[in-house]
Design goal:
With 131 residues, this protein is α+β, with helices and mostly antiparallel strands. The protein is built from 2 helices and 4 strands.
């Protein structure tokens, strides 16, 4: 039986290093992907809440501009932006809106061509039934 040489230890360390680096890269990709996915779900929930605020404002004073300002105020307080192009009030007072949320990631926002994926859109609808 031959004794192990010094090269065998180098092969194991090289293999282990490659494994650790591969797992770290995989973990960052998975984290960023999950962050964007969860951010999109939160954006939809937040859009519904902003639409609730706009609908309540519209039912207390049927003014579309004031309703949009209520939605914009709610979105700004939560670090988001309500889009004017996605804002609509139906004749029955139902509010539809779109907002944009910036998602915090580890790596994705640092890569120029991929950075736009860190901005997710949420679409929300609400009708104030208390009126």
């Amino acid at each position: 039986m031959r004794a192990a040489t010094g090269d065998a230890g180098g092969i194991v360390i090289g293999w282990l290093t490659k494994l650790i680096v591969s797992l770290a890269v995989f973990a960052v990709i998975v984290f960023d992907g999950l962050a964007v996915g969860v951010g999109a779900l939160h954006a939809t929930d937040d859009a519904n809440s902003a639409a609730d605020a706009a609908s309540a404002a519209y039912h207390s004073d049927p003014n579309v501009q004031l309703a949009y300002e209520a939605a914009e105020t709610w979105a700004t307080q939560h670090g988001e932006q309500a889009l004017t192009s996605g804002f609509q009030v139906d004749p029955d007072g139902r509010v539809h809106l779109t907002l944009i949320k910036h998602v915090t990631t580890l790596l994705l926002y640092r890569i120029g061509p991929l950075a736009h994926y860190t901005f997710v859109r949420g679409r929300g609808d609400a009708l104030d039934v208390t009126a």
